[in-house]
Amino acid sequence: MLTATQSVFIILLCVLLTLVFLLLMRYFWPSSQRREHNEIIGWQVSVLGTTYAVIMGFMLYAVWTDFNTAEMNADSEANSLVNVFRLSEGLAPADRDQIQKLSRQYADSMINEEWPAMYEGNLSLDSHHIVQQMWTTTMQAKPASLGEQTTWNHVLTELTNMTEYRRLRELQSKSKLPGILWTVLIVGGVLTTLSSCLFGTDNFKLHAIQVFSLSFLLALALVAIADIDRNVEASTFGSTMRDGSRRNGGSFLASHARLGDAMALRLRGAVRSGICLGHIAVMQGAVWQAMGLSEMLAQLASAYGTASGVTAAAVRLGAIGALEGQNILRGCLPLIETLVAQPVPEAADLSSFIPFLEIAAARHARADLRLFAN
Q: Exposed, middle or buried, 330 (CB in 10 Å: 0-12/13-18/19+)?
């Protein structure tokens, strides 16, 4: 992947070479002589610009699609590793400890060795050896009961999935745009930019500004394509729950904005402009504090919303009836009150631990048919 300095250098170099060509063109072929050809030059620039815009748009779409695919594979690989770690709790202590130890080593190797190596276009052999050890340990495990046998089957499934996603990630990290396509992009950019220098105008400064803008835009687009193409293998882990939190936060802000809440309107604008991410817990805290709710009331409202959301999901899935769902929700109220009454340390970090829900979300992300967003 190109560094920020390299990207800026390439863009400035392209712009500088274009302006130098414009100055040479002005010296060897004066503007007064070129003015009579403006009609033909305009037609040429129009055709070249339109054709090149279509080609560049196609390339941007192609590399961005590859990036999203690689991100999904990396998410799935990370989710499968988490599932292997947590499911191993159901195995014999010796097998559990070894598998969890190897899972931690694999995660450390990925973060500290493989991802930096992929940044440079290489792969780490250490993580490959760890995967082999995980397979050896899993296949040598001897389930002693029906429960351990079921757990072992799940661990084997998740390990298979993790290995498959790892293999796909390695292949994607080596993929790139074919050389012929890069030739088309570069040659097309050069022809389009240089053609804009052929116009004959009396106002040289205005012409130079137009050429500068065009060359800067084309160079920026080419650098963006190159950066995304090299960055296909670099992605974030576990986006399923994060995306759901942002969607819920956006819905929460939309509801309060329609009610005319000033804080919700400001936060909604900040989320749309990219200043805020809009996670549901943060948006609830900000809006409810502005409304004058105490910390305890805000916690009670948030907890009730969480419980009612899970209950409503169970009703939609047909696991329980509507009346049964109401009884379950009512039974949760004393537990919610007890949990909210517990003091929260001032220096506590934001965190959550819902392993069963995270495993379900990870599996749901790969489902062919979905009833819920996450």
A: exposed
